[in-house]
Design goal:
mainly beta; 22-stranded antiparallel β-barrel; 6 helices; 36 strands; disordered N terminus
Length: about 725
């Protein structure tokens, strides 16, 4: 499979290059037929990588939940985890698991009960997927610091990337030499031994005297370390990311992407409710034995650096080529990713995953129509083993499971955005997905061999929607779409009987925009959605200690909610940002639990900040800011299907301050959980905790009181 994977990747790259040249030829031939040509008068920019302004304009053509996160706002505080970057993004539920780069993330209830190694969202860097071919993704493979903005397309609104999952897509966009020339250096440090250094450089080369080609580049690197709020929660990673573009002409550009990540994380584990309330900084207790004594008797078990951890190494290469032929734009992409995992937990899990894919896309502007067609293939193989362990990182047996998981996906879509008037645009799309999942396990255990299967799934997914501009700066929208997601493989400590694809229908309606009233400037993004799902993937504990879990298909469920984001700027001084997420998820006429609430997410979560800005203007706004920030979960959240155990509500208060000293230097102070609240940021999920109480270790504590400081320099 490895050899075939590289051959397939090479074929994709060859096809990409060949079609790019074909597109250039078409550009010449079609021009002679008299198609209108778009005249470019804007400053030089990348053809392959949208600027943040272009991305914001594109959101206005989407008839559903979609938004852009400007990471320059995020960089006014600590920017280490995905939660830092996406905490105020409308519709995104995200919680750090133990203050590291790994978090629980869900959009519209995607992977609702999954507390690690998530799925249900297509995650991308610069439009190139970082998911395994079966749909799983790990957050370690992205560095938010190396991105200018994040595109969040919720639910079926991610069709343009071939995503019809419940959660949609999250796309991190790095700067280019055009958008971010110069050098940046940034350092952050703070509580629990946290420190991070980041640096980047970008620029544009001089046009080649012979060919006229123009090169640009962006390269970024970072290192992050922390001891962690909890015992046995040390983490460190090193990341490097770059993109290099060559503009052959004003209508043709090819961009190459590279990334490499080394991540090392200790896993402190879940606590009981009593442990959470007495000492949330402790690590979880395993069963003590004569060969694995407690470090502190009765508190937590013996741990070494080689025990209870996740070590990840990943590398990624990609190419994206864009050709503009008058009113037609062609885009060709190919990528390859390698992922290696060493994961000593209840068994020692070792994996190597290879994923390849790409896309061929054409967009034609024809009178009032914008017509897009695309083909998005991907394939991958995950080879892994599981071995018994002495709980100190040493295998005590040969493989009990020795598997090869293979995925192949083909997606086709066509979309027409028809502008029926100056204010109204209708959208119609149709996507076809075909996915194959095959597992071959030659392990010695009967349960491993019983997991072997070879299934193919397919579905047509139509979508219709409309946007209507009430004014040039605000609009309303509505859409009706089908969902589709093929099953994922079982993972470390997780088996699956989910052999049916998750699908359903999503309806949504909403509004977004901005308005000025005197000294008041408002911005908003509000969406109501309702998704009726069949065969939803739910994961729950499979034994009393929750050391293993099982993913199953649930026949019928309902997901509905409100995704709301609001910004308010008064007199260019009082700057308020709030994100509210209301979620109403439930079983539908289930034989075991009726119409109980689905566990996993709190019904309501509110995050926000209120900053007072003052001082001399730097970069178009007052240089100094200071003010509180908060997180409020006002109601408890169910933790099992039977709704017998709940995670408590909580409220957190923080504080942020900073200053742009001049156009080059800036600093920030970011204080969190000032009241030192003891709370669970996330929990484990079970079918019925009362019927099978287990050892009670279900809670992942949030960090205690912490303070972070950072400084950044932008040098030409």
């Amino acid at each position: 499979m490895q050899k075939n994977s590289y051959m397939y990747c090479g074929q994709m790259l060859a096809i990409s290059s060949a079609l790019a040249l074909t597109g250039a030829a078409l550009a010449q031939s079609e021009d002679s037929k008299g198609f209108d040509t778009v005249v470019i008068t804007a400053p030089p920019n990348s053809l392959t990588q949208n600027s943040i302004d272009s991305a914001k304009e594109n959101v206005k053509t989407i008839p559903g939940g979609a938004s852009i996160v400007d990471l320059n706002h995020v960089r006014e505080g600590r920017q280490s985890t995905w939660s830092d970057s996406l905490g105020l993004a409308p519709g995104v539920f995200i919680q750090d698991r133990f203050g590291s780069e790994e978090a629980r993330i869900s959009i519209r209830g995607s992977a609702l009960s999954r507390t690690y190694h998530s799925f249900g969202i297509k995650v991308m860097q610069d439009g190139v997927p970082i998911n395994y071919a079966d749909g799983f993704f790990d957050m370690q493979t992205v560095d938010p610091n190396a991105s200018r903005y994040v595109e969040v397309l919720r639910g079926p609104n991610a069709t343009t990337y071939g995503a019809t999952t419940l959660g949609g897509a999250i796309n991190f966009f790095a700067p280019t030499g055009y958008s971010n020339p110069g050098n940046v250096a940034r350092a952050e440090m703070g509580s629990f031994g946290y420190n991070k250094v980041f640096g980047s450089t970008a620029g544009i080369g001089k046009p080649d005297a012979t060919s006229g080609n123009v090169w640009d580049y962006y390269v970024a690197g970072s290192q992050t370390k922390q001891d962690g709020f909890r015992d046995h929660a040390e983490m460190e990673n090193q990341k490097i990311l770059g993109n290099f573009g060559v503009k052959v002409s004003k209508d043709m550009e090819s961009r190459f992407y590279v990334a490499a990540v080394r991540s090392r994380s200790q896993l402190p584990g879940y606590l009981t409710k009593a442990e959470l309330e007495s000492n949330p900084s402790m690590a979880a207790s395993n069963v003590s034995t004569a060969t694995a004594p407690s470090t502190v008797a009765g508190v937590y078990s013996y741990r070494v650096d080689a025990n209870r951890r996740r070590d990840v190494d990943t590398q990624r290469v990609a190419n994206k080529t864009t050709v503009r032929d008058g009113n037609t734009i062609y885009e060709f992409a190919a990528y390859a990713m390698n992922y290696s995992l060493w994961h000593p937990i209840d068994s020692i899990v070792e994996q190597n995953a290879k994923s390849i894919g790409g896309h061929l896309k054409a967009t034609r502007f024809l009178d009032q129509h914008q017509i897009s067609v695309a083909y998005l293939p991907s394939a991958g193989s995950t080879k892994g083993t599981a071995k018994n362990t002495n709980n100190q990182g040493v295998a005590t047996s040969g493989p009990t499971s020795d598997y090869n998981q293979q995925s192949k996906n083909d997606s086709f879509f066509i979309e027409d955005k028809y502008k029926s008037s100056e204010r109204t645009t209708w959208v119609a799309a149709l996507q076809y997905d075909r996915a194959n999942r095959k597992v071959t396990d030659v392990g010695v255990s009967a349960s491993a061999i019983a997991n072997n299967y070879d299934y193919t799934f397919s579905q047509w997914s139509p979508r219709v929607g409309v946007t209507h501009d009430l004014t040039p700066s605000n609009q309303v929208f509505a859409s009706l779409s089908r969902n589709f997601e093929a099953p994922m493989f079982g993972t470390a400590g997780n088996s699956t009987t989910a052999f049916k694809p998750q699908n359903g229908t999503t309806f949504e309606v909403g509004t977004r925009g901005e308005e000025r009233y005197g000294e008041h400037q408002y911005g908003w993004d509000a969406t109501y959605y309702r998704a009726n799902l069949q065969n939803e993937f739910l994961t729950s504990c499979a034994n009393a200690a929750c050391t293993t879990s099982t993913t199953t298909n649930v026949p019928k469920t309902l997901h509905q909610g409100v995704e709301w984001g609001l910004s308010h700027l008064y007199d260019k001084t009082w700057d308020t940002r709030i994100a509210l997420l209301y979620s109403d998820f439930k079983f539908v006429d289930n034989a075991a639990v009726g119409n109980n609430a689905l566990p996993g997410l709190p019904p309501v979560i509110v995050r926000g900040e209120v900053l007072y800005r003052f001082g001399a203007h730097v970069g178009g706004k007052p240089s100094t800011y200071v003010g509180p920030k908060f997180e409020w979960v006002p109601t408890r959240a169910p933790m099992d299907y039977a709704n017998t155990v709940y995670n408590d509500s909580y409220a957190l208060l923080g504080f942020k301050a900073g200053q742009a000293i001049d156009k080059k230097w800036s600093w920030f102070l970011d204080a969190r959980n000032l009241t030192d609240k003891k709370y669970a940021a996330t929990t484990n999920i079970s079918a019925n905790y009362t019927a099978v109480p287990g050892d009670g270790r279900r809670y992942y504590p949030g960090d205690g009181r912490s303070v972070y400081f950072g400084i950044e320099a932008k040098l030409d």
